[in-house]
User: Fold this.
Amino acid sequence: MTATFVPDDDFIRIADICTTLGVPDDDWVLFWRWADELPSAKAVDELNSYVDALIAERCRRSADDELSELIALGLTDDEIRRRVAVLVTKTRGCAEIDVAQGCTRTSSARRRFGR
Assistant:
């Protein structure tokens, strides 16, 4: 017997955020898990690494999503990470977290990737 996944309200909110940011459908469950685990250091590191990879991809190939717009506005990597983390934590009613811990790059994504 297989269990059927029934999305709860939190997952639906995460799905909306992920859609807006341009996160692939297969990765939505990661954001759902991170929303549950933040502000643990491991979850912060994983979320930041994932967002860094998305930033790098959008700098190579812009898309019609919120992340591309944030990059085009010239936000730094840290500012983008912070915005994503705040969106994710608010889905579970968590307090805002300091996602800058462990961040080593604060340069603008546009400068770093020559956009």
Residues 94-115 have pLDDT under 50 and may be disordered. Residues 10-112 form one domain.
